[in-house]
Amino acid sequence: MRLDQYPLAPESGERSSTGGATAVAHPNIALVKYWGKRDDELILPVADSLSMTLDVFSTTTTVRLDSEAPVDRVTLNGAPAAEEPYRRVAAFLDLVRGRAGRIERAVVDTRNTVPTGAGLASSASGFAALAVAAADAYDLPLDATGLSRLARRGSGSASRSIFGGFAVWHAGQGTGVEGDLSSYAEPVAVGDLDAALVIAIVDAGPKAVSSRVAMRRTVDTSPLYRPWVESSRADLTEMRAALLRGDLAAVGEIAERNALGMHATMLGARPAVRYMSPATLVVLDAVHQLRREGVAAYATMDAGPNVKVLCDGADAPRVARALRSGASRTYIARRGPGAGLRAGDGLPAGDGL
Ligand code: DP6
Questions:
Q1: Could you check whether the bond before residue 7 is cis, i.e. omega within 30 degrees of 0?
Q2: Is residue 140 part of a domain?
Q3: How far apart are alpha carbons 133 and 310 in whole angstroms?
Q4: Number of helices (H) and strands (E), helices first, in the chain?
Q5: How far apart (Å, rounded) are the C-alpha atoms in residues 95 and 86?
Q6: Measured from the CA of 49, which atom of ligand 1 is nearest?
Q7: Residue 319, in any domain of the structure
Q8: Which residues line ligand 1 at a C-beta cut-off of 6 Å?
Q9: Dist. CA 45–CA 204, nearest whole Å
Q10: pLDDT digits (tens, 9 = 90+) for 192-241
């Protein structure tokens, strides 16, 4: 048994003479899903969730402070951010400034290595990287738990990307300060497991309904939501035990039923939200066929039509080939590292401002 914790933020990272920092984070895929908030403002979830952080599609974010600037400036892959992402980043920076007792505006540069148009843009890696970089740039000293709580305020799933490998995000208890303090992610103990996720891109287009809107609608209107939450709580307990045993087949079975159940809650929403497309079902059929052939492969889907297939690392190339019947592209991901500051701007270690 080992605690699946990868290196976190090194003690010193890249800092510019104007006060700034660069951080790198990776997306995560939930095996027990986060779907539903009990507090939209603090982003407190209804139930615990559990994920694997990937080693692909990293986000690199630089935050530099500019005491002369009247407003924050945000670029995404070199272009000025659109209104909605800008608003979310600026609100997040307001939160960091409020906590740090600072007023300077920031220049934020974010770069994603997700292939353009893959339909995989991740708010998880984005807000995990922003949390680590902004906390450092504004001199807000936070440990991993504090960074996870902070990242959660940008996007719930970002709380888990602070950690590498497998992480559980605790829903916590209560509301207000009690809820805020008790809701954070932490690494999960796993046995001997060589898990890979094969990402099958079936549709690269933008989604019709954002996950935030779909989540709220599901909680408010779907009669299937509460039963799923109950079963998801049981899934989490079973998932932790399966991970500890290193039982890939059990991990996969629980992950697949949890994801299908989440999509069922959305289909029950009024009006229904349906992210699965015909091509999604072709990929799901390919996963079933793999299992009939004796390959332990299990599907999970998030707020979109793309499918992620959990399998043993040794089987990943075969699984990727099999999924090409329905997918336009496939990527093989393994366990990746937690979010951290990027060292290497030439300054000696510890020579921060
Ligand atoms: C389906 O973390 O993007 O991927 O907290 O509203 O920003 P907000 O939602 P977000 O939701 C992710 C939902 C999911 C499942 C999961 O990652 O657990």
A1: no
A2: yes
A3: 31
A4: 10, 18
A5: 14
A6: 18
A7: yes
A8: 30, 33-35, 43, 49, 123, 155-157, 211-212, 215, 302-303
A9: 28
A10: 999 999 999 998 777 789 999 999 999 999 999 999 999 999 999 999 99
